[in-house]
Amino acid sequence: MTKTSPAPRFRLERDALGELPVPAHAYYGIHTLRAVRNFPFSGYRLHPAFIRAFALVKRACAQTNALLGHLSEERGQAIDAACAEIAAGALHDQIVVDPFQGGAGTSTNMNLNEVIASRAAELLGGEQGDWERVHPILHVNMHQSTNDVYPTALRVAVLTVLSDLEIAVAALQESLQRKETEFRDVVKPGRTELMDAVPMTLGMSFGAFADGVARDRWRIFKCRERLKRVNLGGTAIGTGLGAPRDYILAVTGTLASLAGLPVSRAENLVDATQNMDVFVEVSGMLKACAATLMKIASDLRLLASGPGAGLGELILPPLQAGSSIMAGKINPVMPEAVIQAALRVMANDQTVTLAAAMGQLELNHLMPLLAHAILESLTLLTCACQGLATGCVDGILADRERCLLLVEQSGALATVLVPALGYDRVERLLAEAKAAGRSVRDQAALDGLASPETLDRLLSPKRLCKLGFTPGEFEGVEPR
Fold first, then answer.
1. Residues 6+ apart with CB under 8 A from 152
2. H helices of 132-268, where?
3. Which of 132, 151, 398, 415 counts the highest number of beta carbons within 10 A?
4. 158, 168, 163: which is closest to 384 by C-alpha?
């Protein structure tokens, strides 16, 4: 019986720095392996949308090069097919470089180049690492530089993930609007500086939330305009050196068709290669969305506080047990998670701002950090909007009796009477009510200032939702 020799565990690869053993069945090669060893910083992986976008960019380059005769038809088709598989979600486990890396994204670019080349070689009958058949640099990276494909892929990724965020923000807006309608007849105290203020309806509160989200929805939509210009074809610094003119003029159009996005070549490729201010602008809009979500989540948490010893006006849907020692305790976990996501987005905005500002001369060397931060923000905001809508707002109930009780107990109720009675008389009314331990409504009726029916009319939801007042509304309110 003949013994079969075990399959090799490694293949030996060489670059300008020497040799390294690469796992035999790895699709990546020596350049990726060096990056993995050099930058074991975070343990994070590249955002899936970024990997898919990168594959689309590589696919556009391969198609364009093949069409123009710069790449053989056979190799071009194999590279195209390999890129299509990665864009569809395959081989993402082979993209192993850390998002935090030196070299302005070269490690990411080479990781994609090597994986695409290996897979293309397989499709042509070879094996992983068969660089003779398909070479990562000569064929997959033909007429490209990290400095044009990386920023282009990032723009494509952000445009793609923005669509998910737009859908999530729209759904949250609609959820808040439904609650605005549902709670339009629930009268509650308003509050300023955490102290009692004039009465309002709970529907008004949710209407204000919805309008804030609507503004974010518009801002996010406008982000698209800022991201459409790409520097693909500019190669190292935007001059196009190393790429043929026919390729430069055609490749962005190919990408637009493949990605289904309205991307076009920037007029000034040098500017588009070195300046990342567009991402600062987009990140600022994302920060505004985070601020809105944080305000809403904080308010919901406060309005649901207690429930026995807090405001208790809202009842949030119970999602999980809130304590390992206090039985029956339910915490506002969804608003708290949203607040944490919002804080992270705000921190990422500072990161994006500094990374863009610290780019030097013809290249921004901090692109990997910028890419990680802005894509993380997009994902966090999308998930936060979805979670807040489906895990909180949709299931919120109003404690109507509690709301009415707090209105009756609040001295701010008397503000409704100021236009008819004057500030001084209402101030005395409040002092009398407090001294006697009565509600403002009962004290006003006892003093003969207004009948219970008149007070009911002045505090009706319909009256509170109306902008301003007319003199005739105070008929039946008389100073004594």
1. 57, 230, 231, 232, 255, 263
2. 146-182, 202-227, 245-259
3. 151
4. 168
**C-alpha distances in Å from residue 356, one per residue of 276, 339, 352, 455, 480:** 5, 26, 6, 59, 68
Distance CA 60, CA 381 (A): 30
Q: Which two tokens stand for residue 438?
A: 């009565």
Confidence at 99, pLDDT banded by 50, 70, 90? very high
> How do beta strands 264-265 and 314-315 pair?
unpaired
Mean pLDDT for 437-446 is 82
Q: Strand 229-230 vs strand 195-201: parallel, antiparallel, or unpaired?
A: unpaired
pLDDT of 199 above 90: no
Q: Which residues are catalytic?
A: 323
Q: How far, in Å, CA of 472 to CA of 480, rounded?
A: 19
For the purposes of burial, counting CB atoms within 10 Å of the CB of 178, is it exposed (0-12), middle (13-18) or buried (19 or more)?
A: middle
Phi, psi of 343, rounded to the nearest 5 degrees? -65, -40
Q: Rounded to the nearest 10 degrees, how much is the dihedral formed by the CA atoms of 289, 294, 300, 303? A: -130
Provide the sign of the torsion angle of the four alpha carbons 91, 92, 98, 103, taken in this order.
Answer: positive
Lowest mean pLDDT among 26-30, 85-89, 307-311: 307-311
Identify the weakest region by mean pLDDT among 139-143, 281-285, 449-453.
449-453
b (16+ CB within 10 A) / e for 377-391: bbbbbbbbbbbbbbb
pLDDT digits (tens, 9 = 90+) for 362-413: 999 999 999 999 999 999 999 999 999 999 999 999 999 999 889 888 777 7
- Residues 6 or more apart whose Cβ sits within 8 Å of residue 439: 408, 409, 413, 433
- What would the two tokens of residue 433 be? 């009510």
Q: Are 262 and 256 in contact (CB under 8 A)?
A: yes
Q: Which residues pair with 200 in a beta bridge?
A: 188
Chain center to CA of 181: 27
Write out the H or E segment, with its range, that includes residue 398. strand 397-398
Tokens of 113: 């180049």
Return the percent helix, strand and coil in the chain, to nearest 5: 60, 10, 30
The Cα 154–Cα 54 span in angstroms is 8
The arithmetic mean of pLDDT across residues 315-330, rounded, is 87
CA distances to 4, 48, 302 from 445, rounded to whole Å, are 101, 66, 33
DSSP state of 275: -
Output b/e per residue, 44-61; b: 16+ Cβ within 10 A.
eebbebbbbbbbbbbbbb
DSSP for 167-180 reads HHHHHHHHHHHHHH
DSSP lists the bridge partners of residue 188 as 200
In this predicted structure, what is the pLDDT of residue 216? 96
In whole angstroms, what separates CA 131 from the centre of its chain? Answer: 39
> Rounded distance, CA 93 to CA 219, Å?
35
